[in-house]
Structure to design on (283 residues):
């Protein structure tokens, strides 16, 4: 009699990948990711037959993200290594940061994975704030950590990265690897080129980032590749309260500027209306 329970079959339990309403487990999980299949030039022969359909799938990710995150309160995206251990200095700092941001009224957005991301999500959740995780399909499964209250799984990095920026008032970047550096320099590029305005970028972990900042100043800026003012886009601190205050101050400054612009527009419209009406006639 065959054993239909799956016991003794040699299958590894628990490994799974989520794609919206679809759950894939074990052998059904493909060896490549959607990003790989989209960007790999070796599949050039498929471009005419498959990329049009991929465009609809990409559009669906933007629609899902926009619809799900539209009602978020003010939020801050927190980045850092998935490889950091729970008792590492950066994880302890991330948990403290997540709690402080939640107490200041911010939702916390992370990549939803382990390490620094999980610590920030935990801090926010335990402090009573909204903890958001934006997961991504990877060849090695990470899964969403248990402290995420609101989660979206993405196939495509570029759709996910849009959500990190669009729904955040600031980035806080803790020690991490290539993915963390990618998010850091994309944010700096968007601010430098004026694609986003008043978008604070905070680096936490002064010893970790010191060598990078020295290189930016002594090599990149010294050689004229960036301007001295570009270095001022980065706030470096190990103080959680200082980081949150820097973010809140930038938000207040932007609100004041927007209010001044609105007041000026109202005043200008009123003046135009009075000028159009002309002087009052005397009978």
């Amino acid at each position: 009699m065959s054993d239909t329970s799956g016991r003794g079959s040699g299958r590894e339990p628990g490994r799974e990948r989520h794609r919206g309403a679809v759950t894939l487990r074990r052998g059904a999980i493909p060896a490549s990711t959607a990003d790989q299949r989209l960007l790999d030039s070796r599949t050039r022969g498929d471009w005419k037959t498959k990329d049009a359909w991929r465009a609809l799938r990409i559009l669906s990710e933007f629609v899902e993200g926009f619809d799900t995150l539209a009602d978020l309160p003010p939020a801050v995206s927190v980045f850092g290594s998935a490889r950091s251990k729970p008792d590492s200095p950066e994880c302890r700092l991330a948990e403290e940061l997540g709690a402080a941001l939640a107490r200041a009224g911010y939702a916390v957005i992370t990549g939803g994975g382990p390490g620094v991301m999980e610590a920030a999500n935990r801090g926010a959740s335990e402090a009573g704030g909204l903890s958001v995780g934006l997961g991504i399909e990877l060849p090695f499964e990470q899964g969403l950590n248990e402290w995420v209250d609101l989660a979206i799984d993405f196939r495509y990095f570029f759709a996910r990265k849009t959500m990190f920026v669009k729904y955040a008032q600031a980035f806080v970047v803790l020690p991490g690897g290539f993915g963390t550096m990618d998010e850091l320099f994309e944010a700096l590029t968007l601010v430098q080129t004026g694609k986003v305005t008043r978008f604070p970028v905070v680096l936490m972990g002064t010893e970790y980032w010191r060598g990078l900042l020295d290189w930016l100043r002594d090599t990149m800026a010294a050689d004229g590749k960036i301007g001295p003012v570009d270095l001022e886009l980065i706030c470096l601190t190990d103080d959680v309260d200082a980081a949150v205050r820097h973010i809140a101050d930038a938000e207040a400054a932007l609100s004041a500027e927007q209010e001044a612009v609105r007041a000026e527009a109202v005043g200008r419209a009123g003046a135009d209306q009075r000028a159009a009406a002309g002087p009052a006639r005397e009978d």
In short: The longest strand covers residues 131-136. The two ends are 110 Å apart (CA to CA).
